[in-house]
């Protein structure tokens, strides 16, 4: 929460020194937009691609695609200090989880940006279907082989066999277990506030803060012997970068990186 307070303070107080009015000749009043955003969530992270289409002066419909990763609130990274080359792992974690989703929503402008040093504030809400991937995690486990010796085996976490964190040397390859992925369908909804502060009226730089809610058809199996949840509410803070599109001119995906020449 402290991070959110700092971001809001910088956005609202920093632009008080105006950088000049926006030239009406340069401004695109019918503002379609294409942007990418990276978010830190209280239960993981998100990468979101979004396209907005203006439907009226203060409102835009958007379509988005998302790629998101999840973590359990009880996750704690450990290292087996008895082994010099041991890797970090989360004791009791049984699956790596991530999702892909698609959504539709609406963004309403609450306060218009009057000059290039200002901030426009908008409110957004949206949602759609999502599909979660749960990939089993394999660990390098210490297994006694007799006569005081031991060997290392790759195993999934089993509390009846792995009694303590010192039984684990580290995680096996991330790619092990891909043939055992289980799919869990669900829905996702997000709402929040958008603070756009770009000093170039053809580009967009924005901070978003808000809440996100995932609902799946069953509990998401992240940890063993811990309360896994079916419904995942979270808060997020996101940075977005993109470009404003002129609806009267055709645009290409590469325009996000390479600005088209002015005619």
Helices, strands, pairings?
Layout: H1 2-13, E1 32-41, E2 44-56, E3 59-70, E4 77-78, E5 89-90, E6 95-111, E7 120-136, E8 138-146, E9 149-156, E10 168-171, E11 182-196, E12 203-216, E13 231-245
Antiparallel strand pairs: 1-2, 1-13, 2-3, 3-6, 4-5, 6-7, 7-11, 8-9, 8-10, 11-12, 12-13
Task: Provide a descriptive summary of the structure in words.
This protein is mainly β. The protein has one domain. Helix content is 5%, strand content 52%. The chain has 1 helix and 13 strands. The strands form 3 sheets. It has an 8-stranded antiparallel beta barrel. Strands 9-8-10 form a 3-stranded antiparallel sheet, with no helix packed on it. A hairpin with a 2-residue loop joins strand 2 (44-56) and strand 3 (59-70). The longest helix has 12 residues, at 2-13. The protein starts with a helix and ends in an 18-residue tail after the last strand.
